[in-house]
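Supplementary notes for students who missed Thursday's class. We covered one full example, reproduced here. Read the sequence, then the structure, then the short commentary at the end.
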Amino acid sequence: MEDWTEWRKSGEFFTYNDLNIYYRVIGEGQPILLIHGYPYNSYDWKDLIEFSNSNPSNYKIKWILLDLPGMGFSDKPKNHIYSFSEYANILIYFVNFLNIKSFDIFAHDLGASVVQELLSKVEMDGLKLDIRSIAFMNGGIFSSVYKPRFIQRLLSQTPNWFGSFLSHRISRKKIESSVLSLFGPETKLSQDRLEEYWQILNYKNGKDIAYLLGRLVFEKPKFQERWIGAMNATNIPLAYICGPYDPNSGIHMAKKFESTVPNGKLYLLSEGIGHWPQIESPSEVWSAYCKFLDLSYT
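Structure (token representation):
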């Protein structure tokens, strides 16, 4: 099993508008693009990929991952305007860079909203992109029911100078307490994994810009009409895979998805699974995802 340093060394980089962006391709077969959330990176998907490799589906998969700028092993400039539009444009550039013609998308947390914007570019702006399916997982895709934590508001709904000050000064204990509160009662991260995520967060001084990325959460309301319209206009199969224990985007988000996107498929995991299902229960996530893609595995 790889640790975070081995994961970093196994990847490569591409350049987008002077940003060096980390990516990794694992396996051969049908491409599945995995989009991580905030505040960590593509390493979030490690457990799911390892589980899928030991419980293969009935077709071969090429897992495609990247670290969005500002997170993980990609560049993290302090004087940069991070946006959903830029992130979506990076995904477009990335799949073209890899010469991928047709692919599935599986997106978690903030990555789900990045993919909502990508879908909007397809449905509203006429972008030609062959997306076979989209699965969202524990993402705040509907602002009306999203429940941000106090630390999120403190970092990202305050003046820039205060957000910068707090991001730099906030302690490891505070961050880890906030992260652990999103996990289920029996599925919390081990101390070894917390150490890995602390190192990833601080790679290239990423903790210092946490407030800039956190601001994206509070920009979502202005995109809601566009994003919901795209989800209901598309013929691309959609799903929401949900760890219901998640206080941010759990069962309440799943119910909103079910009522708002009637053609989408909903997969509820065990009631004790929280915000990071791919870490907490990769077996359940893999089972739900295979059902969505109509795959079988042994």
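Commentary. The CA atoms of residues 156 and 215 lie 5 Å apart. Residues 84-97 form the longest helix (14 residues). If anything here is unclear, bring it to office hours.
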